[in-house]
Design brief:
This protein is α+β, with helices and mostly antiparallel strands and 1077 residues long. 24% of the residues lie in helices and 30% in strands. The chain has a nine-stranded antiparallel β-sheet with strand order 35-36-37-38-47-44-43-40-41, with helices on one face. A six-stranded antiparallel β-sheet has the order 3-2-5-10-7-8. β26 and β27 (696-701) form a beta hairpin. The longest helix is centred in the middle third of the chain and has 29 residues, at 624-652. The mean pLDDT is 96. It binds zinc ion. Residues 291, 293, 403, 494, 615-616 line the site of zinc ion.
Length: 1077
């Protein structure tokens, strides 16, 4: 046997035996770069996808007829006023200006027959500036921003009837970022810019091509940005190139085919909101936002228009994109909208009701948090929350400050007291030294109160909703050990604008991609900011431990903002003090004498002060126009305040002083809540001692025999000022010795020069008005002293004055004064400096070397004290080379310390034993003239026994609230004006504000439910950081007492016995009490 073959069954392969032709591996970069060229501009734009984006265009007469009226003198007239004028014919190609002017266009639109049936018709309008579309009846519809930002307005269906339709466009001659001269937007604005109307077309949009364009943008991003070792990246590259290969110019089917290919990567639903309905768990929650700086590179008046433009756009976008949620803060902007644009306000209100337009923040504006006083922060919330409640029936639950320059340590406590448990920000991502370590955490105040803080990991509040933003929401998330979810806050911002249709479309594709191929974090739309935080709070309820951060969120940048625009800061401090006086006196008078509490005037004053605390206004980072505005706003505040005080004087039977000599009917007006005793000058030569408690203090004539003397002696070039407690040696203009005669202790270290003016070269890396950089410290120069002379030798007060030449244009006259010491009261050295300041990019400071050793210095902050290092051990310590203080900074060691008080300054540094108060800067952008001119600055050196205590806190209050002389028409018993409400007990307790209840029936302006009867609100805080006991004593007929939150909601009943209310405050607690009469 043999030879036969057994057939083995074999599978028949069709795999080609021979290679047909060589095929190479894709060269990744080349295939990647090809994608952008497919949908981008440039040499192929007439041959690629871009060439097919429009199905037809109609421009010029008869389809688009234009006429114009220019508003005179940079005015911003209303629709009615503007359209009452004659319009002159104009055309595309014409230019309009100058900067800040307004031009109204009548636009007569006739849709050509051949476009009437197209799917989508838009008006494309681009003049490289901002605009608002109005109906012919005067309803503002939608904003426009040139330069391609948002140039389209969708024509209503009714316009397709072949007839002529009229709209108006209000053109504002400024860009989204004002009128900067060139590419550098923080340079002072060019006053003479003109804007060419480049485009006014009716466009029929190829909707499918537009969709494919977004498909390719996002798939292209995946191809470019996904890691090359992921299959998802290779797939993206493949799909994108397949779409390009399928494309044929002029062939609509090839575009439809392209979209079909794109579906392989993006899924089927990316052209509708249904893409978000898959039920899979998202990581990133998209929230639309449009940050509108209330003033910055444009004045307040332009902001009012920006608000209307931006928010009307969002209402429109919500109609087309049901998933759109838009969060907006700043009560002031809502108020402006209601007053100036009721039509848009009604649209917004309707969307708020639907839950798509979401008020957040709870504050009056997005304010600075370093500089405003504690009471100002309280009022930001009080006025903000009351407006939100009265407009929309609800308060905000999330405090929203994405762009403010650092966050002071008591904010979590105040947020909680304002009904908010959440805080959103992201600004610390700008730190230029240390990276902030958390994105979701509990932020803890000085008193231990906490809020959940979330900082968007995408590190922006103006995200373009790009693939990269979604990706960074996970890759830069630093708290994923606790919770992996995050907010993505997107939309054009700073200059307003908000999300565009492109943002909405891009995010749909990102979501589609996550659900189809994965890898990209899953983004979700349709949830609110509150939904996001609700989930987090729920997780904490269920046992999640969030990481904690105690104390201030110090911003490692923009440290110059504690000092820039000194006059504005001075006005803020004065206005806060004036408001305190006005409210205190008006409260007492309105209860005792039938005087009507001037609620409207007080509201107007507060709203103005709160407005100027906006995060580019008070910090000093706006253009000159804004400070011209704020000067006027403060002038109004002071005028109203003085008017109220004048009326109040009548209720006290006193008036402003008319002649200056010590007479029986001269009294001292006092608004400090404690016993006060001070030497005061009356006229040029006389003096008295004011003493007592209450609103009016008696003055007794100053007699040398009655108290100790104060003297000044000159020996050669050395001057010695001396009273019972202190001896001050002035040599070369500086204090070379400050000797505490009671404690027998020298305060100035050997060779040290206190009160020495020093100057620094101040050219930060970029942000001039904002930043002072660490390297400025290396340029320190002592200003050489000029002559010193004795200028006052009165028995109660002596002074020497030193003239200092700063440069050929600038000088300072610095007067060091010592008053007679009063027994039992700490004496201090008072300094007044008059400065003529004409410098370029220099920084003026004054130094105080002190013989004190401590690794931490203390600084007054709102309702408390914050301690910061005096050394540079770590980069975190060193980053605090310039910090914020309020009325004082203090360096103490066990048993003794020195406080530096000030009347209007906020910048300070303590390095080792050198204390340094920042006085004036000279940045040239964005205000070319910031701080040029005359300044009057006061500070004081207060040495004290023991560590920092109530002596410093109270003296700093007194220093900022000098006693005011008044005269009575007849003899007045000052006892009548003793305060009917007093606080006794631990001296760390401060009665900071006294006011009437917002909703008392004789006070209320009706915005919220009225409360029967009268009440007095007291704000008391613990100032030193220890549990403190006290007693509120009142002679008023108080029926009931509540502890309330800062919104004046009654919380706990507090016992009152015989006019006495016992209170206990926790360290750094802010407590509000409502006394119901
Ligand atoms: Zn801002």
């Amino acid at each position: 046997m043999g030879g036969e073959t057994i057939a083995t069954p074999k599978a028949k392969s069709t795999y080609p035996k021979l290679s047909a032709h060589p095929i190479g591996q894709w060269i990744p970069n080349i295939y990647k770069d090809r994608i952008a060229a497919f949908y981008g501009g440039g040499q192929y734009e007439t041959k690629n996808l871009r060439a097919m984006m429009k199905e037809g265009v109609a421009s010029g007469s008869p389809h688009v007829k234009l006429s114009v009226w220019g508003a005179p003198n940079l005015s911003r007239p209303t629709f009615k006023e503007a359209t009452s004028h004659n319009f002159k014919e104009t055309s595309v190609g014409q230019s309009f200006g100058p900067s800040w002017s307004t031009h109204w266009f009548r636009v007569q639109l006739t849709v050509p027959k051949e476009l009437a049936d197209k799917e989508l018709l838009e008006l494309h309008w681009d003049a490289n500036n901002e605009g608002m579309v109005w109906t012919k009846d005067g309803n503002p519809l939608q904003g426009l921003t040139g330069g391609g930002e948002r140039i389209e307005w969708i024509l209503p269906k009714s316009f397709r009837d072949g007839k002529e339709h009229i709209i108006y466009i209000e053109m504002a001659c400024n860009g989204m970022f004002g009128n900067a001269p060139g590419g550098d937007s923080i340079q002072p604005p060019d006053p003479n810019k003109y804007f060419q109307l480049a485009k006014a077309d009716i466009v029929a949009v190829n909707v499918v091509a537009r969709h494919l364009y977004i498909d390719m943008w996002i798939i292209g991003d995946a191809a470019r940005e996904f890691p090359t070792d992921s299959w998802e990246q290779h797939k993206a590259l493949k799909v994108a190139n397949q779409v390009i290969d399928a494309f044929e110019l002029g062939n609509q089917d090839s575009i439809i085919k392209g979209r079909k290919i794109a579906e392989e990567y993006l899924g089927k639903d990316v052209s509708s909101y249904k893409v978000y309905k898959t039920g899979s768990k998202p990581l990133v929650y998209g929230i639309g936002q449009c940050h509108i700086d209330t003033c910055w590179l444009w004045p307040f008046a332009e902001t009012k228009r920006k608000v209307a433009r931006s928010w009307s756009n969002q209402c429109d976008l919500m109609d087309r994109y049901p998933e759109h949620r838009f969060a907006v803060s700043q009560a002031q902007q809502y108020k402006w909208l209601k007053e100036c644009y009721p039509y848009v306000f009604d649209r917004v209100k309707e969307k708020v009701k639907k839950g798509t337009f979401q008020p957040v923040g709870g504050s009056w504006v997005e304010h600075d948090t370093n500089l405003p006083s504690g009471e100002s922060l309280v009022r930001q919330f009080l006025y903000g929350q009351r407006l939100f409640e009265s407009y929309f029936g609800e308060r905000c639950r999330t405090f929203w400050l994405p762009d403010t320059f650092g966050y002071s340590s008591q904010l979590p406590q105040l947020c909680r007291l304002a009904g908010m448990t959440r805080f959103f920000t992201q600004k610390l991502s700008w730190n230029n030294i240390n990276k902030f370590p958390h994105t979701t955490f509990n932020w803890v105040a000085l008193d231990g109160s906490q809020v959940i803080c979330h900082m968007a990991p995408a590190e922006t509040y103006t995200a373009e909703a790009n693939f990269g933003d979604v990706k960074r929401s996970v890759t830069q998330h630093k708290s994923m050990d606790q919770d992996e979810t995050s907010l993505l806050v997107f939309g054009k911002g700073d200059g307003g604008g908000g999300p565009t249709w492109e943002h909405m479309e891009k995010l749909r594709r990102c979501r589609g991609m996550s659900d189809t191929v994965g890898l990209l974090p899953r983004v979700h739309m349709g949830d609110s900011v509150e939904d996001f935080f609700d989930r987090l709070e729920k997780r904490v309820d269920d046992g999640l431990d969030l990481v904690t951060w105690y104390g201030e969120l110090y911003f490692e940048l923009h440290r110059g903002t504690y000092t820039t625009q000194a006059n504005n800061k001075y006005n803020n401090r004065r206005a806060e003090i004036l408001l305190r006086d006005v409210e205190l006196l008006a409260t007492m008078s309105s209860i005792k004498s039938g005087y009507k509490y001037p609620k409207k005037d007080i509201d107007d004053m507060w709203e103005n002060v709160l407005l100027c605390q906006f995060h580019d206004c008070l910090p000093g980072s706006s253009i000159e126009m804004c400070y011209d505005d704020s000067d006027k706003i403060y002038a109004e505040v002071f005028e109203t305040g003085e008017k109220i005080l004048k009326d109040l004087y009548k209720t006290l039977a006193v008036q402003n002083i008319t002649s200056s000599s010590v007479r029986e009917n001269i009294l001292a007006l006092n608004t400090m809540p404690w016993y006060r005793r001070e030497v005061i000058s009356i006229g040029s030569k006389q003096a008295g001692i004011a003493f007592g408690e209450g609103r009016l203090l008696t003055i007794k004539p100053f007699k040398i025999s009655a108290t100790s003397d104060v003297t000044v002696k000159q020996t050669g070039k050395i001057f010695v000022l001396q009273n019972d407690q202190l001896s001050v040696e002035v040599s070369g203009g500086a204090i070379t010795s400050l000797y505490d005669r009671v404690e027998e202790r020298e305060i100035i270290p050997k060779g040290g020069k206190a009160n020495q003016l020093v100057i620094f070269d101040d050219k930060p890396l970029y942000w001039q008005a904002w930043d002072v950089e660490v390297f400025h410290l290396d340029s320190r120069k002592e200003l050489p002293p000029g002559t010193t002379k004795i200028v006052q030798t009165d028995p109660h007060k002596v002074s020497v004055m030193t003239e200092t030449k700063i440069s050929d244009k600038s000088w300072a006259k610095t007067t060091i004064t010592l008053a007679a010491a009063l027994k039992g009261q700490q004496s201090y050295v008072e300094v007044h400096s008059e400065v003529e300041w004409r410098e370029d990019m220099n920084f003026l400071k004054v130094e105080f070397p002190v013989d004190i050793r401590n690794t931490e210095a203390s600084y007054e902050t709102q309702y408390g004290i914050i301690r910061r290092p005096t050394h540079y051990n770590t980069t975190w310590d060193m980053a605090k080379f310039e910090v914020c203080c309020h009325k004082f900074a203090d360096l103490s060691e066990n048993g003794y310390g020195v406080s530096i008080l000030n009347d209007s300054k906020y910048g300070f540094a303590t390095v080792g034993n050198l204390m340094r108060l920042s006085l004036l800067r000279a940045p040239k952008a964005p205000d070319a003239h910031a701080d040029m001119g005359r300044h009057n600055i006061k500070w004081a050196i207060l040495p004290h026994k023991d560590t920092l205590g109530s002596t410093t806190v109270r003296t700093a209050y007194n220093f900022n609230n000098p006693i005011k002389l008044v005269e009575s028409s007849s003899s007045v018993s000052t006892r009548t004006f003793e305060n009917p409400i007093k606080l006794s007990g631990d001296s760390s307790l401060i009665l900071d504000a006294v006011k009437r209840g917002e909703d008392d029936e004789d006070v209320s302006r009706g915005e919220l439910a009225v409360r029967k009867g009268q009440s007095v609100i007291l704000r008391i805080y613990e100032s030193l950081g220890g549990r403190s006991k006290g007693t509120i004593e009142t002679t008023l007929d108080v029926k009931k007492v509540w502890k309330t939150n800062i919104l004046e909601d009654d919380e706990d009943v507090v016992e009152i016995n015989d006019g006495k209310i016992a209170i206990i405050l926790q360290p750094f607690e802010v407590a509000t009490f409502r006394l119901q009469l």
